[in-house]
UniProtKB/TrEMBL annotation:
Signal peptide bounds: none
InterPro entries: HAD-like_hydrolase, HAD-like_sf, HAD-SF_hydro_IA, HAD_sf
Pfam families: Hydrolase
Annotated NCBIfam families: HAD-SF-IA-v1 (TIGR01549)
Keyword Cell inner membrane annotated: no
Name listed for the protein in its UniProt record: HAD-IA family hydrolase
Cofactor or coenzyme needed: Mg(2+)
Species of provenance: Amycolatopsis rhabdoformis
Nuclease recorded as keyword: no
UniProt KW keywords: Hydrolase, Magnesium
GO molecular function, one term: hydrolase activity
């Protein structure tokens, strides 16, 4: 039985596109400008900025009446509905399962929001299990999160694979868990700060094609 674990944001789903859609919607609702949408995208730091810090900055910059906590709660409910599955994923995952793979998702983030993303994008019904850091109390690159996902998929980690766009979280973390690694470069060059992954692809569709070879 072969196991592959995937990262979620900007791997199986296009979190960056979902954030752009949210930013435009937010700006329209609050009568802001296209330049403000660009500021939101920059301040978001590709999802790495802590959400409480980000929304405090948003509230202060635009002098909004809502509290940072209220803005964050609204975002957590709305953003998952705007995130699309990455191209090729909804068709490729069933092919991978049909080829005998067990498929899991290993993701850092808020438990409720990440689960909503899995459900809204349709990915949840195409995988065998998942482990979300906000629910499990441990996050990538800790090997334990990969182990939890493998247990949910009822498959051994041995000779399994990890696919994701994070050098430290997905590649280094996956390797520490004993997995082969595939890095989604998203147009970036490998920094050299971590040991290189086993394979480099442009996107999830490329990773799926590689695993199906």
């Amino acid at each position: 039985m072969r196991l592959v674990l995937f990262d979620l944001d900007n791997t199986l789903v296009d979190r960056a596109e979902g954030f752009r859609r949210w930013a435009w919607e937010f700006c329209a609702e609050h009568h802001l400008t296209p330049g403000d949408a660009d500021w939101l995208a920059s301040a978001d730091e590709d999802g790495l900025a802590p959400r409480d810090v980000f929304f405090k900055s948003v509230r202060d910059r635009f002098a909004l009446r809502e509290t940072g906590a209220e803005l964050l709660e609204s975002y957590r409910h709305r953003h998952p509905a705007l995130i699309p599955a990455a191209p090729g994923v909804l068709a490729g995952l069933p092919r991978l399962r049909a080829a005998g793979w067990r498929i899991g998702v290993v993701t850092n983030g808020d438990a409720e929001q990440q689960l909503s993303t899995l459900l809204c994008t349709g990915v949840a019904g195409l995988v065998d299990g998942w482990a979300i850091s906000g629910h499990e109390g441990v996050g990538k690159p800790d090997p334990r999160l990969f182990e939890i996902a493998a247990e949910r998929c009822e498959a051994p980690l041995r000779d399994g694979w990890m696919v994701g766009d994070g050098a430290a979280t997905d590649v280094a973390g996956g390797r520490a868990a004993g997995l082969h690694t595939v890095w989604i470069d998203r147009g970036r060059a490998w920094s050299g700060d971590e040991k290189a992954p086993d394979h480099v692809v442009a996107d999830a569709a490329g990773a799926l094609a590689l695993l199906l070879e």
